[in-house]
Description:
This protein is of the alpha/beta class and 172 residues long. It has helices spanning 20-26, 42-49, 64-68, 99-104; strands at 2-6, 32-35, 54-57, 72-73, 76-80, 83-87, 118-120, 127-132, 135-140, 154-159, 166-171.
Amino acid sequence: xxxxxxxxxxxxxxxxxxxxxxxxxxxxxxxxxxxxxxxxxxxxxxxxxxxxxxxxxxxxxxxxxxxxxxxxxxxxxxxxxxxxxxxxxxxxxxxxxxxxxxxxxxxxxxxxxxxxxxxxxxxxxxxxxxxxxxxxxxxxxxxxxxxxxxxxxxxxxxxxxxxxxxxxxxxx
Length: 172
């Protein structure tokens, strides 16, 4: 399975529209796109959905129709390609998460599968790719507003076809 990652698009407040031509090219063949929040306009999800199905986390600035859209949740917990993936807007800032910490955030009633292999997040407007306690934390930055600067930015890809997740953050 191949998954595209974006976050913090801030459309149209800071940037008028997605770089859809570039994203269409780099996301060619993805099975799913995950958006790490701060979407602002529902048109962002609709544009991305022309490429592949989309799920998004609710950003701290997502209100109104965007926040009420069925694709947008505070936290998505997915089992994809043999990996447990959490999609949230803000990453946990705890340097070492003991098993009890992870267990306290797992809600079986919401379909949680246990400790994630990968946590996809946004909010920081910068790229992050690090492993802590065996969990890969990835922020794709922003395709439109990286480091709070307008222009072409970054995106991410998760490829699980080999059984071991290959997670990359790349420039448009």
